[in-house]
Predict the 3D structure of the following.
Amino acid sequence: MIGIGAALKRGMKSSNDFFMSGRNIPAWIAGLAFLSANLGAQEVMGMAASGAKYGMMTSHFYWVGAVPAMVFVGVFMMPFYYGSKARSVPEYLKLRYDEKTRTFNAFSFAAMTVFSSGISMYAMAKILNLLLGWNFDVALWASAAIVLAYIFLGGLTSAIYNEVMQFFLIVLGFAPLVFLGLRDAGGWSGLVARLDLVATSNQNVAGQPFEAGAWVSAWSHMGSSGGNPMGVEWFGMAMGLGFVLSFGYWCTDFLVVQRAMVAENEQAARRVPLIAAVPKMLFPFLVILPGMIAIALTYQAGQTGFSLPVKGNAYDYDMTIPLMLKHYFPSGLLGLGLTALMASFMSGMAGNVTAFNTVWTYDIYQSHIAPNKSDGHYLWMGRMATVFGIVLSIMTAYMAQHFNNIMDMLQLVFAFVNAPLFATFLLGMFWRRTTGHGAFYGLLSGTAAAALHHGFTVPVGAESLFKGGWIGPILHTYPSEMAQNFWTAIWSWTTCFTVTILISLLTKRLKSDEELRGLVYSLTERHSEGHLPWYQRPIYLGALILLGVTVLNLAFL
Amino acid sequence: MKFDLRLPIGFLFSIFGGILAIYGVLTPPETYTQSLGINVNLYWGVVLCAFGGVMLGFAVRGRREG
């Protein structure tokens, strides 16, 4: 299978250029490219882990978070991006604000790439550990060595092409898993009955058992944080996840946004996120359902006796996908599932380490530490940065060992990096009075607020300082890691937003309207699309998608 | 259009599906106790093969038109 992939890849070296050349790309391919930029093994494993740990509420990541955010990007942000001069986050920050804001973001972005690849490395080591019986440390260092080799052999030559391929591999490789698992759990009704048992056998922070439906309903138990397994009330979820984390992710991730811009024209580019939102709506059934099945079967066995292993004082939720693959897939299909998982981990890690390399070498090293060196010197530095990035990833992989759900750790990183950045972006785009000093000190204090919040609070049962409480007295205990993440994001975003406004009002605006053209929403040219038929107009498509997502929310109330 | 993504996708999944289906026919039924007695290799192989075929079909049609 790897051979086929390699042979195909050799013939497709130019596909990336092709994609970026902006030639008549059919909207469906652009939509898939948009979608596949973030449907990787991390999402599959992390969402299944969350499905087991938090139940149906995990669907909020899609039905409150991603899908509305994608509609927002398609309807409001795409015309702006399309008319904008900037093509990447650092570029935008530099043009819109100043050098120090860009540099600050370069550091937090570098940290994010390291954490992200470390989390993938941890997950890959767990899989090797399970399937080949290797010791975890050996498996981890082996994973690191494989990634290093992959990058040095030029494994990123056709990123988008690979990602679309992996998208199909993942969807088609995992669909039978949902079918078999659901069948083992006695269909949907059997699953619900088992999950009711899961809910009543578990207790909230106050020591009361959950109500029967707590694992199968998305909204019904969100009146207070004590009623649901995620331990968050509706406001914390809607604001923390729905607004800050999701909108922050989709609006500021230019890697994703660029995929939409390959479409034939601005109108088509606006439709890309909307087209992608349709399959995105259905992903919970592919990625969250396996987790719900796994936890249900752990409490009440099915005919084949599947159950999750224990880690510390809880289950090892991360093992959901690897264990289910091993349990239900016979040799043959198992190969397909593993190929999908491994290929996606590899390209995800390689992508992150390469991004780290670029940011370190050009945005930090060349700009501030050693300018005006030869190209060869920077090339050498880039190689060093790759090795260094992998070593750092190994360290973060050991940190990931303290979590039982990689999604908990990933969202923690996003709360530190994306949440304040989103406030800086929003203000930069919609308020021309925002100044460079305002943005810089806003970002700085937003990140500091995230650190303070994380340092003074812990999730229940935390044994490690990586989970919080590292500053001193614990001021608040959250019922789950995810609840803590949402509130970290809220604190961080709000602080950045407020401080940026205050400092901007106190400092002098240095950029003229002319300099801000293409960088601020009101100063960017946008085209009217009144002439298009209704089914091609983003506003109507967006409304339809929101209607669909509302129906799904109501169906799993 | 110079390069059609449907072509490699079609090839890959036809080949994967074909191999999987043949493997499914050749393996004894005991292999499938873990998958609840269903020969998932055979059935899913056929599905993948069909998916690959549809992709190839679209690619060929696209090439003819383009």
